[in-house]
Amino acid sequence: MEYNTPLDMLYKWEAATPDKVYMRQPIDGIWHTWTWKQTADEVRRMASVLKARNLPAGSHIALVSKNCAHWIMCDLAIMMAGHVSIPLYPNLNDKTIRQILEHSEAKLLFVGKLDDWFVLKPGVPEGLPCISFPFYPHKEYDQWDDLIKQQQPHANTKRDGKELATIVYTSGTTGLPKGAMHKFHNLGFAATNAVKHLKVDSTARFFSYLPLSHVAERLLVEHGSLYTGGEVSFAESLDTFAQNLQHARPTLFLGVHRIWTKFQQGILAKLPQSRLNILLKIPIVSGLIKKKIKAGLGFQDAANIFTGASPTPVALMQWFDALGIRIQEAYATTENCCYSHVTKNDHVKFGFVGQNLPLCETKLGPDKEILIKHEGLMDGYFKEPQLTAESFNSEGFLHTGDEGFIDSEGFLKITGRVKDLFKTAKGKYVAPSPIEMQLSGDINIGQVCVVGSALPQPMAMVILSDTAKTKPRTEMAAELEANVRALNKTLDHHERIQKVIVVADDWTVENGLLTPSLKIKRNEVERKYEPQYEKWYASKETVVWIG
């Protein structure tokens, strides 16, 4: 089947609803809007700017920016000009930016909304031309607004489904980022079938704050809005996030584990758990409390509330469910164009990431590895033929690297990473992910990484949550120890946590211990702390404080 491209959808809404607002963005506290007609006009003019540069057809053009209206316009302009987009995470370091720009053979770079461009700028190869987005002027570069004033709107460009549309670089959880190549057919296949399955239409309101360079946000927000004719609102900053979300009142929302934890802590700061429990037992009051909390978050109109990218603890999802906020877990990868599994809001199984999306096949390999097959799988990794060959089995199924379980209804549960197993000094293998999932359900724990290679028993490296950091150490140690004791009763003997190591400094993208998509880089955590493992393990205390 031939699917519409994102450009086809832009042309559709430009003609059908030219004066309908498509994008809304707060800038210095003032909301700016773009209709479909205004969006298409800027896209067309920037496409003319790119064509005037006479780059070879199919040239690779990169963009680095936090989410904003011009991110989406830029992506569409690159497509319209006949080129391939290379989106970069806005929180990369200069070394990784250089590595991707050089590896991708980028001919041009768009630079947009960024907090610390002076830190990243050294990663731009000398001589690479750059164009600056409006509102965030990098004065040393050509300016978007100045350039489009000099050009007439470009005519409709028809891109073939077999043409390469984008190269999406992975966030580097297990090493250097790899560039997954996706053609236009993949984008159309994933977006068309996803919005149809979820019954999303032109009344949809999207809220964009997770990096658009990540395949999940790009599919849900950019392509979701293009393939429905819905509206997109952006967050201005971390400080205004809650206010912007309340204003946007999205009908769809995608969160990650850390966001849900922040929301929970914010609610409990105003309404302690003991009082919340009492109020939720009073019928009329319970309804008012739930309504107030939903409105406070901006979720009063949300029909689909998703979580993904990394596992969200069951206890946390159940906590929100008690407030009338039903979180739908989803699962996919960069390599399968973010099209794999989703939980529908009327059929939730906590702890499972949902059922197959339409036209998607899933099966488990001999080692319980999740294997995926559909029309939207990547063509391969750019300039990595060996890695590409290793990514597919003989039947064309994609190796995800994730370990799973499928129940009788076809619901998928993620049980760990195939390669994350470590062997203790007793010769027993331990899968850390399921243990980490249970530990992260503790409101005192913000981040956790279970380690133990060559140790008699595993240890849990933890970063305390913001709330827990305010508690006295003795109280905190007692709570952690009690929770670990309770957890250990549910684990096999060789999996039981012997020590809890409380690390003072957060694991962040900036210190290299988180990927740009906020996943823990297990290898980097191990490299940083492993020399101290034996000393910590020998400590008399169950809870060991470092830093």
Radius of gyration: 24 Å
Return the CATH architecture of the largest domain. Answer: 3-Layer(aba) Sandwich
CATH class descriptor of the largest domain:
Alpha Beta
Helical segment tally? 18
Average pLDDT reading = 92
Helix content: 25-40%
Number of domains: 3
Which fold name is given in CATH as the topology of the largest domain? Rossmann fold
Quick one: biggest sheet?
5 strands, parallel
- Low-confidence region ranges: none
Strand fraction equals: 15-25%
The geometry reads as globular
| Strand arrangement in the largest pleated sheet | 4-3-5-6-7
- Please give the number of β-strands: 27
Derived structural class: alpha/beta
Distance between the termini: 58 Å
Question: Could you please describe the fold and organization of this structure?
Answer:
- With 547 residues, the chain is α/β, with parallel strands linked by helices.
- The protein has 3 domains: 227 residues, Rossmann fold (3-Layer(aba) Sandwich); 165 residues, ANL, N-terminal domain (Rossmann fold); 125 residues, ANL, C-terminal domain (GMP Synthetase, Chain A, domain 3, 2-Layer Sandwich).
- It is built from 18 helices and 27 strands.
- The protein has a 5-stranded parallel beta sheet, sandwiched between helices. The chain has a 5-stranded mixed beta sheet with strand order 12-13-14-15-16. It has a 4-stranded mixed beta sheet with strand order 2-1-11-10, sandwiched between helices.
- A hairpin with a 5-residue loop joins β20 and β21.
- α1 crosses α2 and α7 packs across α8.
- The longest helix has 17 residues.
- The termini are far apart.
- The model has no long low-confidence stretch (mean pLDDT 92).
